[in-house]
Every structure is written in structure tokens, then in C-alpha cells.
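Thread: quick sanity check before group meeting

JM: Hey all, I'm pulling together slides for Thursday and realized we never actually wrote out the predicted structure for the chain we discussed last week. Dropping the sequence here so it's in one place. If anyone has concerns about the input, flag it before I start.
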Amino acid sequence: MFKSPGPIAVSLRLPPDLPVVGSLQLSIRWYGVLIATAMALGLWLASREAQRRGEPSDELLKATEFALVGGLLGARLYYVLFTLDYYQTQPWWRVFAVWEGGLAIHGGLIGGLLAGGAYVLSRGLPLPTYLDIVAPYLTLGQAIGRWGNFFNEEAFGGPTDLPWKLYISEPHRPPQFIDQPFFHPTFLYESLWDFGVFLVLVLGLRRRFEPAPGALFLAYLGLYSFGRLWIEGLRTDSLMLGSLRIAQIVSAVAILVAAVGIPLLLRRRPA
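JM (edit): ok, ran it. Output follows.
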């Protein structure tokens, strides 16, 4: 059994004798720390991979800047659109409160692809190659970022009594499980799955798929989505479209695209 120590990593309060009206406190949240760490590490590793492939790292970094901004906007917009009932009852500024959680990876992928891809294409650069460069580090970033859900006590599964059960405090429990203290740590399942996908991409597929640009990115989509498909079924807070879990629909489509696209790309590669 384990439990979150809380969402705040560091909390700073100005001394009361300073000439400040009222009290001023600065809180740094684990969610933000982990997202920033994932971005920084992913950028550094992707830059090294670009150099290995003979691609200009400065262009990759510029494209990634656009992709990160587009990804953050897409991830938040996607989440808010599918939880409008909640945000319509909240102050307007909570729509922008990303430090409280609420970033949907599928929305982030869509926004990042649109923004970063538009820059790459506008510069006449090979988009499939750039997607392959960043693919392994996307899933590594997801593996790190998922721990933000742990600190925020979100993205957990249904009740369980397994040895690795996760304690959720009463204010964060779904109403139907208010008397159940322990839940599946689905954030952990997905983090471990993502890290495993990262290892498969880097150690098993990166060089093998290099002659077929785009295949590694499709492998990332397919492998990540395969894990997300079954993990999503355990969660209690899925974004819904009627009676269907949106993440499972998107994951199924991504698996199909990867299953069709990878063989086609591999057949086209130079002999």
C-alpha cells in the first residue's frame, strides 16, 4: 500500500515583517515539476538523436517549441471540452489551472502534431523523420508525467485490495466509492507500460525502422495505445462520449493505423 504525500513540492511564504500587504505564499506543485522535467529531458535526448541522424538540432528544437505549446493547449482544450459540465460550475480562471491536473494526452498529441508538424513542413523538412526522432522520448515523458497524477490523487482505477493498492483520501474518491479507501494505481500501470514502450522503441526498433521513416512513430502510437486500451478500462475518471470511453476509441483507431501503416512503410523502404 502507498499514498500520495500531497500535490505541493515546495511552499514558500514571505516573512510577516516584510512590507507586503497580506500574506504571500508561493507553491510549486509536483505536477508542474514532473511535466517540466519530462519536457526538458525529452528535448535533450531528442536533440542528441537528431544529431545522430544528421538532422539540424536547432530546427528540431524550434519545431519542438511549437509542438510543446500546441501540445499543452491541445491537452487542456481536449480535457475541458469533455468535462464542460464541471467547468461551467467553476470560476472562469479554473479553465487555465493546469497545475491542478487535467491534461489529456490524446489532445496533446493532436495539438503537438498540428503545431510542430506545421513548422516542419513550412521549413521543407522531412516530417516522418522528425516524428521518429521524438517518438521514443514522447513515451518517456509520459512515463515521467504520469507520476503527477499520483501526487494529485487522480487517474486511479476502481477499488482493489492488491498488495500495491493506492490509498486515496476521501475528498478525491468518486461518490460511488466514498467508503472504499484503496484503488488500482492506474497511473503506475501506465507509467511502467510507457517506460517499457520507450525501451522497446530505443533498443529494439529504432535502428531497424530507421530506413522506413514514420514507422517508429507509428510503432509508438500502436504500442502506447495497446496499453492505454486496457488500462483505461480500469479507470474511474475516464472522459466519456455517451457510454463509451473516449481514450479507448482513440486507442483502437491508433492501433489500427499502426497495424496497417507499419507494414506499408517497411515494404517501401530501400533494399
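AS: nice. The chain has a mean pLDDT of 92. Residues 57-81 form the longest helix (25 residues).
JM: adding both to the slides.
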